Amino acid sequence: MTTTVAAPAITAKERPGDRVFSTLTVVASSLILAVLAAVAIFLVAQSMPAFVAESDDFKGDATNFWSYVGPLVFGTVWSAALAMIFAVPLAIGVALFITHFAPRRIAQGLGYVVDLLAAVPSVVFGLWGIGVLAPALQPYYANLTEWFGWFPLFAGPVSGTGRTILTVAIVLAVMVLPIITAISREVFLQTPRLHEEAALALGATRWEMIRMAVLPFGRPGVISGAMLGLGRALGETMAVAMVLSPATIISFALVQSQNPTTIAANIALNFPEAHDVGVNILIATGLILFVITLGVNSIARYIVGRRKAFSGAN
Length: 314
Fold this sequence. Notes:
Elements: H1 16-51, H2 65-101, H3 104-117, H4 122-148, H5 165-189, H6 193-201, H7 206-235, H8 238-243, E1 246-247, E2 259-260, H9 263-270, H10 277-305
Parallel strand pairs: 1-2
Helix pairs in contact: 1-10, 2-3, 2-5, 2-7, 2-10, 3-5, 4-5, 5-7, 6-7, 7-10, 9-10
């Protein structure tokens, strides 16, 4: 009877460069977690006085912190949701045009233009919204109120300046468009070529091939891109503060002069003159926004993690 002895495992000698690189990556990742924890601790510590503040410390008719932040949360979520309604279908259409319809030269140029939109500062979008978009849309808002004023979303009186929540939503949609388009485009390009060719070979039209092969494959990426865009829309400050005529109200009306403001815009507009517990109240609203955006990005990362690897059939 013979016995076989297992050969000893061969391990590569660790080089100094590998050790240094490994240490740097651990330090960098730990630093990110430390910064995030420090921000969270700062927000929680500075927010405590706001939760027990008296009604006289709040602006408007608010009697406590939750009645104060409620309209701000509504305005933040409402404007971001409207922006996503405009941006997501347009971003998917642009991504599909770039990847499956446009000639190569046009697709490259259009892709560069879309990517450059992400580099435009938010203050520029705010100037465009208040100086160009709002005056141009005001006559259409008047028509919407005249034709569909019976519907609560378009109820009057219409704004005379065009600085409404609907204008803000359009500006935010343009701002988040590059994020959603870029992610959707990269995901659509990863669609297995064999799947597309098989659909076409079975007699499917171009649109049927996209509907049966491309869109199902790219759905997780589109959803994650939309969630990342939503995080950007929730935290946008300057464009909203410049365009919107704010009020601490809860209203679904889209074209009126009084509109619910957002948390970020409220902080930007009121922080310079805030003092004592007023600063803590604004920081507490920032904590609420921090929790909302952290939740949105966590959901996005979870969706991305469900599809970690794409097929190599290309």
